[in-house]
């Protein structure tokens, strides 16, 4: 060999794809010198870091971009007085810790509260809403200390019982003045530890512009539809009472309703009525029909059960009917607000919207991919733009939320509203609204359900009276 060295290199094997590796790999090179003139072989080892597959995996992940969807054409009734409302379930720190199985695929760094609170505030301040409705808040003062410096005031209502989270409402002090606020403790009605908030605001630049904003986090349990329905019923009844008290002011209802767009509860909200005997109490919320593995982006409306009355009634006990409607004799339930969904009111791509116009998904973790968050509004307001959700295929690529710049397992919903009526028109319509509601209720009555429908109307008024009598308990005035 004439003294020449024969160099043989042996390389350690490593996976061809970085996605299967979750730690640093080291590239090992063994060099063996086989020289004729040397009595023994000399072996040296070189070790150097080859690559970081976790970093490569992160770099290949999608970016979440939220875009505003504008109304197709300006409404002739748009007064020009606009304001933005954001609803956001921020994932309580305690809930995240207690249900870590829902986030087993999420890096622990993404779950850290100190990081998440900064991202939450950054996202909110980036949107710049005039009114913010938050759910699952268990570190209110952490958030408020940041938001207060940016010109926000706020109120907080913690859940009853052993729960440490609650609902919070924040508003820009240079945009709105708080006229009245109430908190509802559903436990006072035997409806678990959930809470809701109601606030009446007045625009700073025009005191004739007033709006009532409601914020709710409905019970999660998918099987207790009667409790979910009762919580929504009570909130809407009280919202209507306060709206009328302040001169028929328009209403915005925000929150996590823990109910899908295909559900009976959604139907109750959007159509103002529900015959509960047509639906299975255990699936009023529709949550059991929505799973990440089965989700295909195509949804169909939930159909009522079509079987004999005897079997239908067997799905509901007298106690469950009483919980849901407030009376054992009422099965046709109604509410006085004519609610419309801000997202369903503005058209968007089928990549982000379902059959009824709602986002395909507002929440994503290992056991759920679907929509449970909404922004509702009444006459006197029109949505001029909404913050669209990401396409469903992009959400799937994240593997679940929280993710990068998204601090919760829910997506924030945002809507810009415009007032459509003058103050004098609102006052004129206050009387007309009451008369119209009574006429429409009579039209919906059928001979077989007339007694139940009448009882339902009486029950709605009873709720208002009960709420007023318990002013000292619930903070109602």
From TrEMBL:
Transmembrane segments: none annotated. GO terms for molecular function: 3'-5'-RNA exonuclease activity. Residues 422-459 are annotated as: Disordered. It comes from the Eukaryota. It holds the Pfam family Exo_endo_phos. Residues 86-410 form the Endonuclease/exonuclease/phosphatase domain. PANTHER family: CARBON CATABOLITE REPRESSOR PROTEIN 4, CARBON CATABOLITE REPRESSOR PROTEIN 4 HOMOLOG 3. This is Endonuclease/exonuclease/phosphatase domain-containing protein.
